[in-house]
Design a protein that fits this description.
Mean pLDDT of chain B: 91
Number of helices of chain B: 14
Radius of gyration of chain B: 19 Å
Largest sheet of chain A: 5 strands, mixed
Shape of chain A: globular
Shape of chain B: globular
Order of helices and strands of chain B: HHHHHHHHHHHHHH
Largest sheet of chain B: none
Low-confidence stretches of chain A: none
Helix content of chain A: 25-40%
Strand content of chain B: under 5%
Oligomer: heterodimer
Largest interface: A-B, 22 and 25 residues
Number of domains of chain B: 2
Distance between the termini of chain A: 27 Å
Number of helices of chain A: 14
Strand content of chain A: 25-35%
Structural class of chain A: alpha+beta
Amino acid sequence: MEEASLISGYRVESKVWDEMFDHQGIRPLYQKMVNAINRLSAEEMNHKDDLAKKLFMSQGVTFTVYSSGEGIEKIFPFDIIPRLIGAAEWKHIETGIKQRLKALNIFLHDIYHDQFIVRDGLIPVQLIYSCPGFIRAMVGVKVPHQIYTHISGIDLIRDQDGQFFVLEDNLRTPSGVSYMIENRSITYRIFPDLLPRIGVRPVKDYPDLLLNNLLSLSNRQTSAPTVVLLTPGIFNSAYFEHTTLARLMGIELVEGKDLVADGNKIYMKTINGLKQVDVIYRRVDDEFIDPLVFRRDSLLGVPGLYSAYRAGQVAVVNAIGNGVADDKAIYSYVPEMIRYYLNEEPVLKNVPTYPMENPELRAMVFNDLSRMVIKKTNESGGYGMLIGSSATEKQMAEFRRAIEQDPRSFIAQPIINLSSVPCYIQGKLQARRVDLRPYALYGPHGIDIVPGGLTRVALKEGSLVVNSSQGGGSKDTWVCNE
Amino acid sequence: MLSRVAESIFWMARYMERTNGTLRLVRTSYISSQDEIHDFTWAPILQHYSDRSDFPPGDSKQVIEHLLLDKENASSVINNITRARENARAVQDHITKEVWQCLNDFYHLIRNERIHAQILRGDAISAMDALIENGWLYHGVLDTTLARGNGFAFLSLGKFIERAILSANNLSIKLAELDYHLDRPLEIPALRYLLYSLSGYELYLKTHRGNLNADLVIQQILYHNHFPHSLLYCLVRIGRYLERLQPESLPEVYKNLDFLTGKLMNHLKYTPVDIRKGKELGRFLDHIRSGLYEITEAMNKNYFGHF
């Protein structure tokens, strides 16, 4: 039976955890899916691949890339083979993320109020105050229900033993959740009947859960609070996501110029005058949100918004100032936070992280640069990053110089061999590296994590960079009932 | 409804109406240039839908490409579709997913290389037909999926204001083509193409049994109650959709707009126009157009928050 089936040509790299294959063959988790696709001819698979591309294009699921003055819309590269996660694995992830978020949320409240964690000497005070995401204006501000991290995306990876690690916390305005929803709406059409057969948990509850959380943040005595989604506008690369979420929740999508502050209240301009706004789910970054307090040259936000927020007249989601908790230098302290605030052992491990401020660690990293990843503490999206194993001598020298000039802004981590999953590329099943970003919603009634998330995949052979700006794509993520 | 959203929907509708109108006009003009009319000139059309006039005579394909696909031409169809889509993109959560997808498909169709090649080297009419069909699809999708709320009212206002302007434009273009003489027999084919470009030929045949007469053609374009491209029909609709907005509007806003539409309607209905005096008809059409601009101006101020 070992004829030219899809599976037979599949090659796994050594020292990499492949999520479909172990040394004995196909893992039981993947068995049903393999049965379903292995019988398909190349023609059928190509047809499915084309169908996916067509559906993405006609639904306008795009992100915008700017070159030579004209915005070009590209579809986010999508691989049709879903990535599977078993029930037990998911349970572990869920518990770990909930624990982590609880601690991070307490940390934010602590940092902007009493700073016990600093006084007790767990985190050096200069680390907090040198963090660009630390917003002085937030000190002493009361936020509704003491929740800061309403929406977060926690990036997870698996090492060569299959163990999950947290790579990054995204607590400001994490994006990508619309791809989680859209990817599912496409895979069920590509693989009819397969989702129920495998027992895949649905992700479509996300907008409802989010809307309920947003509604509960309103401070006004009204049965129908006004919730809006604030977008930077159609030129933002995540604009598609903003419209999708606004539509799925049935809330108004507004731009900064649609809102106006008056007497510490926020109003939106409508065809019959001004209407008060109670909750703002903003996708505009902290520094652009209010030119009176933050960047003065930006009109993406609303003048006077901060003052209204501080007065408790409008809720802002996520809270302002979360950047201090997902700074890459603070990241290495999260396990300590979990022990300190919750008196628990962390369920999900951190990747070992060396702050470059420490001269000894710096010397160690410089000696071993080819096995390290260097990251800027305040950047994301795969920018400001050096992967030692594929960097040239010149790039390494540049980073060494930059680190010595400003060590606070860099961290180093050992290169983790991300796990691989099968992808359908050029008519063959090929192993490619992935990470996973589940989305967690923190509301007054607790934390919900929709079973699934965004699996990002490095589509270039051997590459470890999954960011869409750097040749990455996505896959649908199926959490199975098993 | 947000002012910005109302404005974007209004302009989406205007750009789509303009797209469909331009496509029909270019299509019928092209056909007439190939077949019946001698000494055909694109000059009056270029005057309305381009800022260039330096095309060598006899090369229709180049002119069509310029009117439909040239991104340098601010009034080209491709630019109109792009703008319609950009407006739709900014209000995606207020139109239905179906409408957005339809517009998005239209945009990808006109950017398609095959359409381009067909216009330049193949049968330009098939290419234009494909585009026109997409325009009809857009209207059908709107009609079957969109809720009849404020958004629909702004959409319809945009559509009928633009349509009235287009009908007036097409008539003006034809007048210029005929050098303002409407009472000579050789104008018969020109009049037929005028009706084609407004989808009004069949209605004319049914009403007047094929006896093409300049006076009756112009009567139909100006006053016919049931002709969806007549100026009167468009104005009646504009009045009706403004009425729908009344409960949502501040009283003085509605009063002002009601006054402007009423005034324009009266001018249209009760101004005697002698079609034998072509120039006079031209001035009359100018007046109607400026009345429509006045209504748009008032909407800008009162609903869209331009001060």
